[in-house]
Amino acid sequence: MDLSGADKIVIAGAGQAAAQAVQSLRQGGYKGALTIVGEETALPYQRPPLSKAYMKGEMDEERLYFKPAAWYQDNNIDVILGAHATRIDRAARQLHIEHGGVLDYDALILATGSRPRKLPCQGADLAGVHDLRTLSDVERIRPQMVSGRRMVIIGAGYIGLEAAAVACTMGLDVTVLEMAPRVLARVTSPVMSDFYAHEHTAKGVKILTNTALSHLDGADGAVSAAVLADGTRLPADIVLVGIGILPNEELAKDAGIACANGILTDRDGRTSDPRVFAAGDCASRPLVHYGRTGRLESVHNAIEQGKLVAAAILGLPRPAEDCPWFWSDQYDLKLQIAGLSTDYDTIVLRGDPKARKFAAFYLRQGTLIAVDAVNSAPEFLASKKLIMAGAKIAPEILSDTTIPMKDIAATAAA
Amino acid sequence: MAKITYISHDGTERTVEAKNGESVMEAAIKNSIPGIDADCGGACACATCHVYVDEAFLEKTGVQEEMEKSMLDFAENVKPNSRLSCQIKVTDSLDGLRVSTPESQH
């Protein structure tokens, strides 16, 4: 459908994908009405620092925001905050907002993001139990991050481990509970899990894998202990829950738009309704370098889909799709991830984890599909290009640190 | 505070007021300077805020740490005065800084 004549564009959501979409729409020459509807009360801001520098108090709030308030005025963008979108009327092309507001659209972008999975157990609503997703979560957490206090983190994914690193550095007594046999089990290989578990343990974080939570105990309405399935009681002053996120797809689903663990889109971000698009955490998209569809929870994905959707609405050429990439900062370790390692059959190490500078390459039938690079930018950047090229590289070349990554990349490209 | 001038690939100049403590990248993003993507928001994770620093200011912008050096090694069209603008902190001494942006960050 040609939407190049659109002059009313509405975006449900005000996170990274929404921020990118409005910027790309205006940069792409769109002059019509542009409205962002956000549930949170804050202007669009960066989430990654919430479990890193911002949590630690090393970054001012002002620096989290993508753009100052004046930018939205200067660019004639209506920003409606603290507002919950309740319903899409596709026939009338209207987005309904709680308390009676109705917005007409020619094109609607769903950038509704995701929400933390809730603890299914007793005590989950006690004071001192927190998700770590929004600025207001961190505002509640930070005053409690006092040296000597006991923090229990449920879930050893990236968010949980990043928070553990911050809390440990600030002098809290940190315990991480994980049901799986290893940390980061859902997202990376055993070699990386071992490395990160060792790093945290060496810093004094207690990591309990194969450990199920029974419930949380409270005193006077505030959490006092995490009780494990085997009855062990871990006294706690503060509990962080990092057990994954769920896509906010209900708005689409209720309107009859196709969803399957995310709002299904084509390469342009278009949903099963040609006037409705989805971008960011909430969308399940074609992963063109992997020949399947999937949902990516990342900055790269939000930015890229924001750009793709804007281009599709304006009838501009489709921007190039990058290889998925991610990063995680823990202590002085910068992990940079390129590609998706699911389904790898071979893992190749380059460098020595003991030196805290190494990379794990993932291959499938000889083709490089992903890398986890710790303090190793060349391995990350070279792999991004190699993955997009579908390069086949011999394991003995990848593991040979006497051959610079630049040369490996050049040889494979030739 | 420092006045920073960004020169885009087509020669267009834009001058902005940058605050001490923020990075040359952040000042660009807040002011919608085209040509700097800064996808990772300043974590030195993506190498999409590559700029060329005016020779007169090279020393004042400080030295590259190893991470930045190796990231730049993989950027396109790198020159001796290439920097990642997220790694340059604004101070009074950078007043009048001029940086140019490359044709593309990818």
TrEMBL record, chain B:
Needed cofactors: [2Fe-2S] cluster
Domain of life: Bacteria
Gene Ontology MF terms in the entry: 2 iron, 2 sulfur cluster binding; electron transfer activity; metal ion binding
Name assigned to this protein: Ferredoxin, 2Fe-2S
Keyword DNA damage: no
Family: Belongs to the adrenodoxin/putidaredoxin family.
Record domain 2Fe-2S ferredoxin-type: where: 2-105
SUPFAM superfamilies, per database record: 2Fe-2S ferredoxin-like (SSF54292)
Biological processes annotated in GO: P450-containing electron transport chain
Entry keywords, A to Z: 2Fe-2S, Iron, Iron-sulfur, Metal-binding
Signal peptide: none
Gene3D superfamilies: 3.10.20.30
